[in-house]
Amino acid sequence: MTTRYFGAPIKRNEDKRLLTGQALFVDDVELPGMLHAAFLRSQNAHGRIKSIDVSTARARKGVVAVYTATDLGYYWQPGPLLVPPPPIAGIVFNQRTQVPLAKDKVRHVGEPIAIVIAESRYIAEDALADIMIDMEPLPAVVDLEKALAAGSATVHDDLRSNVAAHVRQTKGNYAQAAAKAHCIIKRRFLYDHGMSSPMETRGVVAQWDARAGQLTVWDTTQAPVFVRNGLAGMLSLSERQVRVIAPFVGGGFGPKIMMFYPEEVLLPWAAIKLNRPVKWIEDRLEHFFATTHERSQIHDAEIALSSDGRIVGVKDVFLHDTGAYDPYGLTVPINSQCTLLGPYVVPHYDSIFTAVFTNLPIVTPYRGAGRQHGVFVIERLLDFAARELGLDRAEIRRRNLIPPDAFPYNNEIIYQDFAPLSYDSGNYEPVLDKALALIGYKDFIASEQPKLRAQGRHVGVAIACYVEGTGIGPYEGAKVQVQANGKVSVATGIGTQGQGHFTVFAQIAADQVGVDVRNVDVVTGDTDQFYWGAGTFASRGAVVAGNAVNEASKVVRQKILKLAAEHFECAEDDLEIANGEVSIVGVPGQFIRLGELAMRANPMRGAVKPGTEPGLESTQYFGPPSGATANGVHAMIVEVDPDTLMLQVLKYVVVHDCGTVINPLILAGQIHGGVAQGIGNAFYEKLVFDDEGQLLNASLTDYLLPTSLDVPRMELAHTVTPSPLNPMGIKGAGEAGAIPVGPLFAQAIEDALGLAAQNVELCEIPLSPNRLWELVGKAHSKS
Amino acid sequence: MKPAPLKYMAATSLDHALRLKADYGGEASFLAGGQSLIPTMNFRLAQPAVLIDINQLSDLAGIARDGQTIHIGAMTRYRALERDPLLADALPLMTEALPHIAHPQIRNRGTLGGNLAHADPASEMPAIVVALGGRLRARSAAAERWIEARDFFVGPLTTALHDDEMLVEIELPAPVPRSGSCFMEVARRRGDFAMVGIALMLTLGKNGDCSSIRIALCGAGETPVDASDAASGLIGQPIDGEAIGDVAASVQQSIDPPGNMQASKEFQRHLAGVLVKRALRAAWERATHG
Amino acid sequence: MDSEKHDIVVTVNGMRYLRQAEARMLLSDFIRHELLLAGTHVGCEHGVCGACTILFDGHPVRACLMLAPQANGHEITTVEGLAPSPDQLHPLQQAMHDKHGLQCGYCTPGILMTMTAFLAEHPVPDEAQVREALSGNLCRCTGYQHIVDAVLEAAEKMRDVK
Ligand SMILES: Cc1cc2nc3c(=O)[nH]c(=O)nc-3n(C[C@H](O)[C@H](O)[C@H](O)COP(=O)(O)OP(=O)(O)OC[C@H]3O[C@@H](n4cnc5c(N)ncnc54)[C@H](O)[C@@H]3O)c2cc1C
Ligand code: FES
Ligand code: FES
User: Fold this and answer.
1) What is the distance between the alpha carbons of residues A380 and A373, in angstroms, rounded to a whole number?
2) What is the position in ligand 2's atom list of the atom closest to the CA of C48?
C-alpha cells in the first residue's frame, strides 16, 4: 500500500452534498400522489379507552383514511423484543413491548391511538381534532419508588407489580470484604439522563409498487436491515420485496435504532392498503413523546476502602425507569451496572437493580446508554472517599487504576453483549497524567485557585475517568467492488447519522485497493445494496463495519493483483497498486487502470474458469469476539457566580484512548459532540414531568439544548493502546465524550463554591442554577 | 405543528388594516413580525380565523426624536432599533436590552409593537417601556387614544387594547441629565426569556443624592412589574452599599413572582434582589460618570 | 373552514417562481415542498433550532415563522443559492468542509445562511462574536467548535480575497 489514508485527518466525502443542500433526508422524498399521516396521541399518561369515534374525521374533506387499533386486525401485534435479557442467573424479566396503536389502555402521554391519512399534513392535523375519544383516566405511575410500593397502580394489568426486571450481578464477596474495610461511604444518587433530540426528528415514507410487488420505505432508522427483515415478516412479504433506505439521517444518538416504532409499522401497512405513498414526519412536539428517552435511576451505593484509599469493594442497589414498555431489554441498566466499575480495580462488587415500569415514554439507549449513570456513582463515591481519607482527588483515582500488565482484565460480570465484561487492553495512568498536565491541575490548586479566590472569584477544578465498552458484535458485513469507471464502491448495512462513515470506510478501502479516497463511493443504509448486519449503535459502526470493509478490501486487493499478474504475465510480488492503477515495480509506463481490470474481470468472451468469480468484488463479514474498551479522562475548570449560580467553563480537556485512530478530525468531532451532549445532560436538559405523567417542557424553548455559548472550547489529546480484538486495533469512540461530564460538573461546582466546607454534596444530575440555589445558594445569599 | 385553516389578508394601508379589524374583531389578529404569533399557531394554541398582515405598512416603522420625546412606530423591527444611533444615544436602556431578545434571525422580523401587544410578562420590552414611563398610541377605524405604559399591560398576554384597536406608536421620554440606566437579566441561555430581568432608571440630584428611581422587572409577575414605589425610599438619599441593599430588600418584598420552568418563585425573588443591587450600582456609576 | 389559495410570486436564488399555496402554509414548507428546494431544513417549527434559516430580502429569518403568502413579491436566498457555481463552494462552505464543521449536516444549511450574513456585516470577527452569532442555531452533533473554527477561517479567507 503506498498511500496511507488510514490515520490521516481526511476531509469528508459526504460534505459537499450536505453543504449545498443536495443530500437526501427522509422528508425530502417527494412522490406523486403522496399522502400525509398524523397521529392522534394520548393526552393521558394512563387511561382506559372506552370508545373512539372517528366518523367526523373520516368525513373531513381531504382525509383519505383514519385507522384505529381495531382496523388493524391481525396486523395488530406487540413489537418484538429487540435485545433479550442476558444469561444471568436468577434474572427476572417481564417482556412488555409497545403496540402499533393503543387498543384498550394508554400507558404514556403521546402513545398513538389513531392514524389519520390525508392529502396534506395540515389537513391530517385538522382531522385529529375531529376524533372523539372517551377515556377513563387511571392513576399515573411516575415516581420510581412509589411505583414499587404496595397498592400502586400497575402499568400492565397482567402484572402484579411494576417490576420490569430484577438483576443481581456479583464479583467476589462484597459483604465479607466490606466487613474488614477501613471505612465505608454510602450515598444516594439520582441521575437523570434526557432526550437525544437530534435536529432531525424521525420520519417514514412508504411506497408500495403494486405492479412490481415492491415496498420501499425511507426511514430515519439506525438499523435499516433489521427494519426490512421485520417488516417483511409482519407484512408476509419476502425480504427481497422490501427495500428500506436510511438516507442521510440528521443525527440519531440511539433512539433512532429503537424499533419497531408504531409509525414504522403503520406507514408501510397503510401504503399497501391504500396503494398510495404515505409520508409521516414527526414534528418536534411529537418527538418529545413519540421518540424514546433515557431517564432516571436512583442508586443507593456504597464503597468500602482501605486506609490508603484502595477500593475494597462497591455495593450498589438501584432503580431504573424503563418507561411504559421495555422493548430494548436490559441494555441500559446493564450498561450502568458494568460501566460503574470504570478503570479501577474493584475486587468485590455487588450490584442489584430493579427496572420499573412507569407511565412515561419508553426508555432505550441514548448516547452513553446508561454508562453515565454508573460513572456518576463511582466517580462521586471516589470524590467523597478522597475527602474522607484526606487524599487528593487525582491521587485516589491513580491508586485504584488497573495496572497496564493486568490486561485482558476480567471483571467477571456479564456485559450487554452477553459476554463476560473483560477489558481487552488499556494503559490508564498515562491518560490521567496527560489530563492533569493539560488542565494544569497541580498548579491550579497550588497557586491559581488561591489567587483567584483571593480576588473573590469562585473557580473549581475537576477530573473524571471512565471506561467505555464499544464495538460489540454480533457482526457487520461489507461489499467492496471495483467498478468499470475505476471507482470503488463500498456497501455496508449500517445506517449513518453523521459519524463520517462515508469517509472512514473510504479511507480503509482506499488504502487497500490503492485508489484516491475521493474515488471510493460508500453506500450505507440501503438494503438493496447490502442486506446483512445489525446497525449503528454502541460505538460500533467504525469498529465492526470498518473491519468488515478492511477484510473485503483485502480480498479485492488480492483479486486485483492476481488478475494483473496474469495480464502482465509477471509475479504478483512485482506489482504495486496506486492512484487507481496497477503497475510493475520499476518499469515505468507499464500499468493498467483498475477500471479496465474490472472490465476484464467480467469478460464477454472466455468463460469464467472453474474456481474463479467474475468481477473485482468481495463481501466479507467481521464479528468481534467481544467488545473493545476505550477509556479516557476529562478535566475541567469552571467559574460559578455565587449569586446567580450561573457558570462558565473556563477550560475543558479530554484525553482519550480509543485504540488506533482512523481519522483524527472525525474523532475530534465525535468527542466534541459527545461533550456538548454531556454538558446538556449535566446542566441544561431536564425532562420535567408532573405527578400525572405530563411532560411540562415539551418544546425547545423549555427543554434547553446547549448553544455555541454554552459549550466551551475543548482541548483534546490521545494516547493509543490498540485493541487486540480486531486487526486494525480500533476501538469505538462515539459515546466517550458524553459519559463523564455529569460527575465532572458536580465535582467542579463543589470545588468552586467550596461546598465541602459547608457539608453540601452534589449527588444528582442534572443540576441547574435553580437546583444549585436550592442545594447551596441559601447559604450564600446571606453574604 | 401546522397552523389551523385561516384567511390571510395583506393590508395595504393603516385605514385598510383598521377597517378589516373593525369588521372581523376578535376573529382576526394582526400579523406583525409573527415571531410570537406563528409559533403559537404552529402549536395550535392560537387559531385566528383571519390574519391581517401589517408588514406592508411602512408608515408604521421608524424612529424619530422630537425634543425630549422619542417616537417609535409599532412596526419598527428590533433589527432597526438595535442599529439606530439615535436610539442608542437617547435611550441606552432600550439598546442595552435588545440583544437579550432571542437571536438575530428573530430580531430581523420581530417588531416592538408586536412584542408589546403580545404582552408576555417575561419579555424585556414591556419592562423597558414601563421603566421609561412611556405611553402607547392605539387606533381604531373610529378613534385614537393614548395609554400609559403602566396601564397597557393588564395580565399575561393581555393588554388594554380593544378588539378593534391597533397599537401604532410608542412614545418614550428621553432621560434628563445626570441619569443612568441599566438593563440586566439572568437567562439560562443567550436569547432565552429571562428567569428574571430588571430595567432601572436612576437620576441624581446636584448633590449626588438620588432624585428619582424607576424600576421594572420582567419575569417577576403577571405583567411587567413596576417596582418603582418599592425603591422610592432611595429618593433624597445618598447612594451607598447600605442604601442599595435596602432597595434590593424592599423590591424583593414587594414582588410576588410566579415561578417558571427554570426558576422557582423563591429563586426568582432571590435573583431579583441580586439584579437590583447590580443594576443599581451600574446605573449609579453611569449617572455619575456617563 | 377552507383555507383559500394565494398566488405567490417569489424570487428564490435569483429565479422567479409562481406558485399557489394555502394561506396557512409555512414558508419553510413552501420552499421545501412546493419549490422543491429541500436544502432548507426544519427542526422545530417554533423558531428555536434555526435549521430553517433563510435570507429574506437579504436578512436571515426563520422560514418556519412566516407564511407562504408573506413571501409574495420578495427575494429569498436558500442554501442552494450560496455556492457561486456548481464546482465552487462559498468560502464558508469550503471552510466548513476543511474544518469538519458538519456531521449529520442537518443544521448546516441554517448555519450557513446565518453566518454568511453575519460575516458580511462582521468581516473581522473574534471567537466570542462568532459564538454569539451562532447561538441561535442549534447543532446536536458537533459541539460547535469546528463550526466556530470554520467561520473564523472563512472570515480570514474572505478578507484575503478582498
Ligand atoms: C425562539 C424565540 C425566542 C424568543 N425570545 C424572546 C426573548 O428572549 N424575549 C422577548 O421579549 N421575546 C422573545 N421572543 C418573542 C419575540 O420578541 C417576538 O417577536 C415578539 O414578542 C412579538 O413581536 P412580533 O412583531 O413578532 O409580533 P407578532 O408575533 O406578529 O404578534 C404578536 C401578537 O401581537 C399582535 N399584534 C402585533 N402587532 C400588533 C399591533 N401593532 N397592534 C395590535 N396587536 C398587534 C398579534 O396579533 C399577536 O397577537 C422570542 C421568539 C422566538 C421565536
Ligand atoms: S424549524 Fe424554524 S427554527 Fe426550527
Ligand atoms: S451536524 Fe448534526 S445537527 Fe449539526
Assistant:
1) 11
2) 3
- Containing structural domain, residue A326: 297-472+625-782
| Nearest CB partner across the interface for B186, out of A125, A646, A774 | A646
Q: Give, using CA atoms, the residue closest to atom 9 of ligand 1.
A: B101
Q: What's the pLDDT band for A420 if we cut at 50, 70, 90?
A: confident
Of B145, B173, B201, the position where a domain reaches its end is B173
Check: CB of residue A25 under 8 Å from CB of residue C38.
Answer: yes
Binning pLDDT at 50, 70 and 90, where does residue A494 land?
confident
CATH code of the domain covering residue B143: 3.30.465.10
Tell if the CB–CB gap between B190 and C61 is shorter than 8 Å.
Answer: no
- The identity of residue A173, as a single letter, is N
Say which CATH topology domain C91-161 has. Answer: DNA polymerase; domain 1 (1.10.150)
Chain C positions touching A674 (Cβ under 8 A) are 143
ipTM strictly over 0.95? yes
The protein residue with its alpha carbon nearest to ligand 3, atom 3, reads: C139
Verify whether the Cβ–Cβ distance B188 to A768 is below 8 Å. Answer: yes
Domain boundary pick from B133, B155, B173: B173
Q: What pLDDT does residue A416 have? A: 81
Which residue in the block uniquely carries the three cell numbers 437525544? Answer: A196
Q: Does residue B11 surpass a pLDDT of 90? A: yes
Say if B204 falls within a structural domain. yes
| Residues of chain B found within 8 Å of residue A769, distances taken between Cβ atoms | 186, 188, 195, 262-263, 267
Give the model's confidence band at A782: pLDDT under 50 very low, under 70 low, under 90 confident, else very high: very low
Residues 637-676 (A) with a CB less than 8 A from some CB of B: 643-644, 646
**Which chain A residues are within 8 Å of B262, Cβ to Cβ?**
702, 704, 768-770
- Which CATH number is A78's domain given? 3.90.1170.50
Nearest residue to A504 (alpha-carbon basis) of A482, A478, A485: A478
Interface test with A, best of C37, C85, C99, C144 (most A CBs within 10 A): C144
Residue C113 near ligand 2, beta carbon < 6 Å? no
Distance CA B262, CA A24 (A): 37
Strands B166-173 and B135-139: antiparallel
- Topology of the domain covering C5-81: Ubiquitin-like (UB roll) (3.10.20)
Q: Which of residues 73-112 of C touch B (CB under 8 A)?
A: none
> Residue B51, CB half-sphere, CA atoms under 13 Å: how many?
29
CA atoms within 13 A on the CB side of A136: 6
Q: What is the CA radius of gyration of chain C?
A: 16
Same domain, yes or no: A574 and A712? no
Look at residues A459, A430, A281, A292 and name the one whose alpha carbon lies nearest to residue A369: A292
- Determine, for residues B109 and C62 on separate chains, whether the beta-carbon distance falls below 8 Å: yes
- Of A125, A151, A177, the residue at which a domain comes to its end is A151
